Structures are given as structure tokens and as C-alpha cells.
Recover the amino acids of this structure.
């Protein structure tokens, strides 16, 4: 049976601390990765960009006391979703393609407990808001993050001032890092290194071209089987088993022929509509 041990507790504290106090998507993703809820090796740029957008809106709503998006009218929610998809369409497509998030059994039960408490509270009181009610008590995270509140506060001050041990180490090793960067740039100029760039537009075009080529291939095979069936049928009774063979080729022509309109009017249209939902084009 899974246990909620000190590692999971520390990771959860780091997650809430980064979400409520630092509002830093990178720290949130680091905490989720340590908790096993974010796959290692995924495109962190897309995850962090979408996460920062959610965190910014969460912080803005929490500070202003406005309604959460889930409580807004349906039309206003749709308008906000369209605007967000237009701004972050590329990132949403990347996340959907990679599926970077996973939920271990331990966290499934933890999240279920939170949702159950929130559901019971809203049933008893429509104005119940678990997030706003717990905000004042989250200050206790200062004692849980680094052992005590003084140490956590000191680390935050040092982070802002740039006097953490890691910052001092960066300053000391800066000449070595600059020399390494110069070496990399020089080798790139000589052609020893080739940068790899991920172009989402090219990936979408390649995916669409695969569907188009598959439809063309099915159409060519359908025509080939149809011509073969017609040729075999013209032989008549002069060749043994001419009719069964002709019928087999005709059936194959029908099968591949039916796959063409299915690929054009179902698969291709579905792909275009899917991309349009996120404000991007497949062409």
C-alpha cells in the first residue's frame, strides 16, 4: 500500500510554497517532478509557460477576491477559454501530444480527499471556498519548508538579494562558464555543433501530410485493384478461378476506396477542427 511519507510531504509543501508565495512555475514544476506527477524529459518550456499563466490568474483572483472562472457564466467562460487558446495554442497542443502529467495512486487519494471536502462544503454553503479559507493558515508552510520560519525567511531574503550559496558559486565560477560558452560558440561557427529547434508548425504540417499521403496511397491501391479486377474479369472462362480472383480484387478495391472519403471527411477534418480549437492552423 502506498504511504504518504516525508518525501511526499516535503514535495507537497514545496509545491504549495511555490504556488502561493513565490508564484514561480519553474519551482512548481520541480516540485511536481519530485512528487512523480510530472514526467521527466518532457518539454518543460510548454509546461512552465502554461503553468505560469494559470498561477498568474490564480494569484490575481486570490488577491482581488473576484469570482473563480468556474463560477463565471458559461458565455464568459467560453470567451476566456477562446482567448487563452489563442494566446497559448501552441503550448496546449504540445502538452496534449506529450501527456506530461501522471498521477500516482497516492496522490489520487489525496486529491480525492480535497475534492470531497470542497464538495461537502459547497453543498452546505454555496459561498464556501476552500482555497480562500486555507490561505491564512498556509503561513505555517514557512515552518515546514526549511524546518523553521526564520530559516525560510532568511533564504527568501538571500534569494532576492542574490547572496545564496548557489549565487556565490555562480559568481565565482562565472569566468569558467563564460569560457565554456565561448568554446561552444566557436565550435558552432566551425560546424561541429548543430542546434536543434522544435517547430510546432512543421510538426503539425507533417502530421497533416501523413494523413494526405495515406489517402493518396489508399486511392492508388483502390485504382490498382479495380484495374486488376477488370483485367482478370475480361479473361472470362479461359483462365481457371478468374471470377473468384476478380471478385477478390474488386472487394479490395472497394475496401481501399471507402478508406479515402473516411480519411478526407473524418480524419482530416477532425484534425483541422482540433487545431482550430486552439487557434492554430494545420496548413
Amino acid at each position: 500500500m502506498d504511504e504518504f511519507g516525508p518525501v511526499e510531504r516535503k514535495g507537497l509543501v514545496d509545491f504549495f510554497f511555490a504556488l502561493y508565495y513565490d508564484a514561480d512555475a519553474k519551482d512548481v514544476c520541480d516540485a511536481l517532478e519530485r512528487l512523480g506527477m510530472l514526467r521527466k524529459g518532457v518539454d518543460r518550456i510548454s509546461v512552465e509557460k502554461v503553468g505560469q499563466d494559470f498561477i498568474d490568474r490564480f494569484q490575481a483572483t486570490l488577491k482581488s477576491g473576484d469570482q473563480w472562472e468556474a463560477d463565471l457564466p458559461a458565455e464568459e467562460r467560453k470567451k476566456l477559454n477562446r482567448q487563452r487558446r489563442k494566446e497559448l495554442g501552441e503550448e496546449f497542443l504540445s502538452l496534449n501530444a506529450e501527456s506530461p502529467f501522471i498521477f500516482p495512486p497516492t496522490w489520487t487519494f489525496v486529491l480525492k480527499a480535497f475534492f470531497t471536502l470542497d464538495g461537502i462544503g459547497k453543498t452546505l454553503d454555496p459561498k464556501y471556498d476552500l482555497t480562500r479559507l486555507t490561505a491564512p493558515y498556509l503561513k505555517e508552510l514557512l515552518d515546514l519548508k526549511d524546518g523553521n520560519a526564520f530559516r525560510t525567511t532568511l533564504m527568501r531574503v538571500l534569494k532576492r538579494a542574490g547572496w545564496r550559496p548557489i549565487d556565490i558559486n555562480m559568481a565565482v565560477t562565472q569566468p569558467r562558464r563564460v569560457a565554456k560558452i565561448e568554446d561552444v560558440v566557436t565550435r558552432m561557427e566551425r560546424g561541429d555543433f548543430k542546434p536543434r529547434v522544435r517547430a510546432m508548425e512543421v510538426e503539425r504540417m507533417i502530421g497533416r501530410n501523413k494523413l494526405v499521403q495515406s489517402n493518396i496511397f489508399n486511392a492508388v491501391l483502390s485504382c490498382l485493384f479495380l484495374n486488376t479486377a477488370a483485367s482478370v474479369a475480361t479473361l472470362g472462362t479461359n483462365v481457371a478461378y478468374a471470377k473468384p480472383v476478380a471478385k477478390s480484387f474488386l472487394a479490395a478495391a472497394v475496401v481501399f476506396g471507402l478508406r479515402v472519403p473516411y480519411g478526407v471527411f473524418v480524419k482530416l477534418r477532425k484534425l483541422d477542427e482540433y487545431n482550430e480549437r486552439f487557434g492554430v492552423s494545420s496548413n
The chain is about 75% helix and 0% strand. Residues 200-235 form the longest helix (36 residues). The mean pLDDT is 79.
